[in-house]
Structures are given as structure tokens and as C-alpha cells.
Amino acid sequence: MLKRISVPLYIIFVALAIGGCKGPTDPVTESVWEEVESPTAKDLYSVFALSENNIWAAGDSGVIIHWNGSEWNTVQSSTMKKLNGIYFVNADNGWVVGNNGTILYWNGSVWVSDSSPVNVDLNDVQFLSQIDGYAVGDSGIIIHYDSEWSIAYQDFTLLWKSLHFLSSGNGWVVGCKGWTGLEGDGRILYYLNGSWVLISPRFRKSISSVYFLSPTNGWAVLEGKGLLPILHYDGIEWSEFGSNIFHSVSCISFMDSTEGWAVYGSTGFGSIYHYKEGQWTLYDDAICYALYSVYTVSRHNAWAVGESGYILHFSN
Does the model's pTM come out above 0.85? Predict the structure, then answer.
């Protein structure tokens, strides 16, 4: 078991004088992203919060961990597959999706395997109620749950990475064409009252994550080389926002329309971006672990997870 001592990252910043990575600190509020001891050395790909004292994360080799308000602990799962997305409806109703069509269900006591209609990798999951949920993945697959899982949409030329539904009749799915993620390969799919519509034009990079606050306020982030913009939806069209801010982004999360977080990770390197008062800024780009997922619990409480079980907690 990998153990890390919880040390405020502003202390690590001092260590730069003799080498090492700095940690992010809010220059105004002195809020910090603090490393929290992790019960696993496995990569963590998704984090979700029901409350400040009830947080879940999932990742490589079937690992699932839980925060009870004071510490993280591993929770036994029924698979060794890579787990890519986690979502909870309530404390007794949770879902995890992963590679080879893996679907797990939390019944309030244990994680159990659920029947899957596909064997492709599933990359993200979201539920609107206990009997209304979606998962998206490779081969352009979208599956829907209404007491059982079934295929709702498929386009073998596409790969879906993230989804966000505002209601049972209004949702967005993002990804790329095929496996490439090259120039011009980003794709956005819109769901409205039973119809799926592929948005045109294509975008210049693969789209890795999407988050909507209302039908007229949505965000999507790009991944790839070079400085990239973020995409914003105003209820009419998607447009580029804040050009040349982002190197690449893995995940995005908002508390409300005024503040949010985004993270990025590649092996041995992570970045954090912050949205506040209408502006995105690079918050920190010298984190020594890749960051794959972020979840904003409240204005002063957020979690990020990533490479080798690395966990960061933002609070003040």
C-alpha cells in the first residue's frame, strides 16, 4: 500500500530552493491544494462527491476507494478491469464503468457486476435518477439504463470520452473521431428529446470533458499538444474562449457559474486551471503527478485524483 503524509503543498513550494515540485496555493485566500494520503498506488481516473464526507474514486485494476470524512480506504470491487468513470445517485445507488464493457453497481453495501450490452471500453457515466442513466465509450457507443442497459446510439467511426446531461431530454456527449484525436477530430453530440444530433463543425483537437451549468452555459475542454482554447456554449453555438491558456485538459468541474476547476495530466506531470470571475487562468503547472479527474464539492472544497493513486484536496 502506498502511503503519503498529508503535507500542505505550500510547504513543498519552499522545497523548490533545493529541487522538487511546487504545489498550488491561492495567492488571495491562501487556500491550498493539499496532498492527502492514498490507500492505493494504482492510477485513479475518476472522482465523484456525494457530500464533503462521502467521496468515491475509481481507477486501474478495478480499484475503488472511499473518503469517509477523515481518511481514504479501499473498497472491494468485483473486477480487475480498468475503471474509467464513477457516479452516484445517492448513498445507496452508485455506478462505475470501465474497460471491456465493465459495469458495476453499488447497492449500499457492496459493488456487484451488472450485465452490459457491449464489450467496448466505457469511459464515463451519469445518472439522472435511479432508473435513468447513460454511459459512453469507444466505437461511438452510448448505452442507456432504464432498469436494464441497452444501446441508445452507436457510430463506429467515433470515440466518446465524456457526457453531461441537464435533464432526461437534454444532454451532451464529447470525444473524437476514431482513435486519433488529431487536428480537426473533436466531436460533440447533442441529445434533445429523443434525438441525437452531431454538432458541426468539427473541432481542432479531441474533446476530453464536458460540463453544463444550464442550457445556455456549457464548457468543453480540448486535449493535445500546444496551447489550446476552451470551448463555451451560450445556448446558440459553441465558440473558443480564452485562447492560448490550456496546454491540454483531462477533466473539468464547476460549483456554479462563477467558479470552476480543470486538470491535466501526462506521466510525471500535472496542471491545474482555475475559472473565477469570468476568466480562466493557469493555476499551477508543476505538479509531479498526472491529474486525470477533478470534482468541485463547494466553492472551497474540491478533489483531484490521478497517477499512482495521487490525491489532492482543495480547502480553506
Answer: yes
